[in-house]
């Protein structure tokens, strides 16, 4: 009889998921780092000329944190969205459903592995950006870097897990990536401050949870953000993201518990 949490099973699932993406780390860790670095090169060359500054720092320093956490979120989604989907397509979904793991343990193991991949990608991108001329990654508020980075990775990992339950083929997951995740990431203030937008688009940006992740993560490095004029606004954003992830986690758990598209 397994009493309480099945620690061995949870750890085994986590290690399985981590080893899965590490076997192809060129594709899952290093390639995203190179792609994100190319974003930095292109946008700093195109928009960062003549000593342009944003929020009192060089454009390269401004855009670097946003690119780091954007890469983290996108890879967290990619990792968790593959788990159930590959099993359903290959007919091996039973290997995840049959072990003595509760739905909470199943969700925790997959999400934790996705967050691990996000952290590895973020660290790799950050180290690469330190070598880029004009980029400073000195942290003004380390807690914000850790919290918003974690909340962003967890949020996208949960979204990816829900996508893998719903999707029936890789085209479905790719559609969510291309038409939901990518637009929300690129239109969240990664390359600009929303004060430059019209009031309508500012309101739309503030309804985008990705905006709070990217701006809060940037606040951890620069000590400034476009969330609000005070640090209290950033704190409220941190609390709001935590609550949002709790709700998203509850919805994901309910979806797994229902067995929709998993047991039928």
Q: What's this, in brief?
A:
This protein has 264 residues and is mainly α. It has 10 helices and 2 strands. It is globular, with a radius of gyration of 19 Å.
> Which H/E pattern describes the elements?
HHEEHHHHHHHH
What is the rounded distance between the termini? 28 Å
Alpha-beta content class? mainly alpha
Q: How large is the share of residues in beta strands?
A: under 5%
Q: What is the count of structural domains?
A: 1
**Major sheet characteristics:** 2 strands, antiparallel
Number of helical stretches of at least 4 residues: 10
Low-confidence stretches: none
Q: Based on DSSP secondary structure assignment, what is the total number of beta strands?
A: 2
Helical amount among residues, as a percent range? over 70%
Mean pLDDT rating = 90
Overall spatial form: globular
Q: What is the radius of gyration computed over CA atoms, rounded to a whole number of angstroms?
A: 19 Å
The side-by-side strand order for the widest beta sheet comes to 1-2
Report on the structure:
Helix content is 74%, strand content 2%. The chain is mainly alpha-helical and 264 residues long. The chain has one domain. The chain has a two-stranded antiparallel sheet. Strand 1 and strand 2 (57-58) form a beta hairpin. Helix 3 packs across helix 9. The longest helix has 32 residues, at 59-90. It is globular and about 65 Å long. The protein starts with 6 loop residues before the first helix and ends in a 6-residue tail after the last helix. It is found in: Cell inner membrane; Membrane. Belongs to the ABC-2 integral membrane protein family. It is a multi-pass membrane protein.
């Amino acid at each position: 009889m397994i009493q309480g949490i099945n620690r061995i099973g949870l750890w085994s699932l986590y290690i399985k998921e981590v080893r899965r993406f590490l076997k192809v780390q060129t594709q899952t860790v290093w390639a995203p780092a190179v792609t994100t670095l190319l974003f930095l090169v292109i946008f700093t060359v195109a928009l960062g000329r003549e000593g342009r500054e944003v929020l009192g720092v060089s454009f390269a320093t401004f855009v670097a944190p946003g690119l780091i956490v954007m890469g983290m979120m996108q890879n967290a989604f990619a990792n968790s969205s593959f788990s159930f989907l590959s099993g359903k397509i290959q007919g091996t979904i039973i290997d995840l459903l049959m072990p003595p793991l509760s739905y909470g343990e199943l969700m925790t193991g997959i999400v934790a592995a996705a967050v691990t991949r996000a952290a590895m990608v973020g660290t790799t991108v950050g180290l690469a950006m330190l070598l880029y001329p004009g980029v400073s990654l000195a942290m003004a508020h380390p807690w914000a870097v850790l919290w918003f980075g974690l909340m962003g990775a967890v949020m996208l990992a949960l979204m990816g897990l829900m996508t893998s339950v719903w999707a029936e083929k890789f085209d479905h997951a790719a559609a969510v990536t291309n038409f939901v995740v990518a637009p929300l990431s690129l239109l969240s203030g990664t390359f600009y401050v929303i004060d430059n937008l019209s009031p309508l688009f500012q309101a739309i940006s503030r309804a985008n949870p990705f905006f709070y992740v990217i701006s809060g993560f940037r606040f951890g490095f620069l000590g400034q953000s476009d969330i609000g004029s005070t640090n209290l606004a950033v704190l409220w954003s941190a609390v709001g993201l935590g609550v949002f992830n709790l709700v998203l986690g509850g919805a994901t758990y309910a979806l797994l518990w229902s067995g929709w598209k998993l047991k039928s």
